[in-house]
Amino acid sequence: MKRLILLSILILSTISIFGQANGFKDFTEFSKDGPSLTFGFQLKQRTGGDVFMTGGIENFRLKKITPKSDIDKVEQEIWGVKVDDVVYINSYPYSKIKGYNQIIEKGFYSYFIGEPARFEVEQRKLGIIQETEKQIPVCCKVGYVILPDGTVKLLRPELLAELCKDNSELSDEIKNANLKLENVYEMFDFLKRYNAMKK
Question: Which sign, positive or negative, has the C-alpha torsion 158, 160, 165, 169?
């Protein structure tokens, strides 16, 4: 009985999807919803223990990639993949951390949850540290926004205010919300409303 329970927990803690993935080689393909790459894969979510140890980040890995000659490209180069109408952005190009994170919403501003980059160059590019600041230790999940030109940035309250400044109603609400970096989903909600108004 104990073995059966243990096996059930193990199965439930690891979600895997097998099939064909359509890959976006760059941001332009993503913005046009025109993936040009196809390969075999196993999409595997982190186990519950891994998610807990990394502050709640439910990123995915692509395993058993075929053809094997595409492994490095899939892990490090391509922009993302589309699996059953769900898009996952490759975290390696912007953070140097292998894995894929699910795009929560695609719009004028697209956004997702991911890990902070661990290295100084990537931390500067993402806006985690400023030009004069030194590399910092990282922990836990943060929100990212994909700008209309494809640039990925850490979603800070200051950046949110800048992105929505042409909408006076949202700008006033953002000023009064007293948002902090950890208020990821509240900031996503503002971006969702901004996207709806841009349609």
Answer: negative
